Amino acid sequence: MIREDAARWVTRGPVVSAFVPLDPLAPGHTLVVPTSHWTDIFDAPPQVLAQAMTLVQLLAEKMRSELKAGGVNILSASGPGSEQSVPHLHFHVVPRWSDDAFTTWPAHQSRHRFVGDPVTQLANAMAAIDTT
């Protein structure tokens, strides 16, 4: 839970809000969070995720127009195998510039080995549900 006086709020809404983290990666780095508690992407309702992504997109657009960012990185981790350190769903929106001299992109590929074809398995699982 974020205390009212403990955050620099960028915007607050009934479903999602945005604030600056205590240790921003870049000027304007913002966290988008659901107002209600959801641990991760696996338990958040689709409507909450849709509103969070709408706010992420609006912030990204403002970072480009107001901060003159060349782009943004959108980062999130969900579940114990993902390095999620805070058990509340959140999305980092990090403005980027060509001269910022850091990377948020993974430097290495996963060493995990999967038996079978993961693309076929995912495609079959997706085909089995109604996504319309």
Written overview of the protein:
The chain is globular, with a radius of gyration of 17 Å. A five-stranded antiparallel beta sheet has the order 1-2-3-5-4, covered by helices on one side. A hairpin with a 4-residue loop joins strand 1 and strand 2 (about 15-20). Helix content is about 25%, strand content about 20%. The chain is of the alpha+beta class and about 130 residues long. The protein has a single domain (about 10-105), classed as HIT-like (HIT family, subunit A, 2-Layer Sandwich), CATH 3.30.428.
Tally of helical runs = 2
Any idea what the CATH architecture is?
2-Layer Sandwich
The helical percent reads 10-25%
Helix and strand run:
EEEHEEH
Low-confidence spans: pLDDT under 50, at least 5 residues?
A: none
What are the SSEs and their pairings?
Layout: E1 8-11, E2 16-20, E3 30-34, H1 46-66, E4 71-75, E5 91-96, H2 118-127
Antiparallel strand pairs: 1-2, 2-3, 3-5, 4-5
Task: Briefly summarize what is shown.
The protein has helices at residues 46-66, 118-127; strands at residues 8-11, 16-20, 30-34, 71-75, 91-96. It has 132 residues and is of the alpha+beta class.
Features:
Histidine_triad_CS, 5 strands, HIT-like, alpha+beta, HIT family, subunit A, 5-stranded antiparallel β-sheet, 132 residues, HIT-like_sf, catalytic activity, HIT domain-containing protein, 2 helices
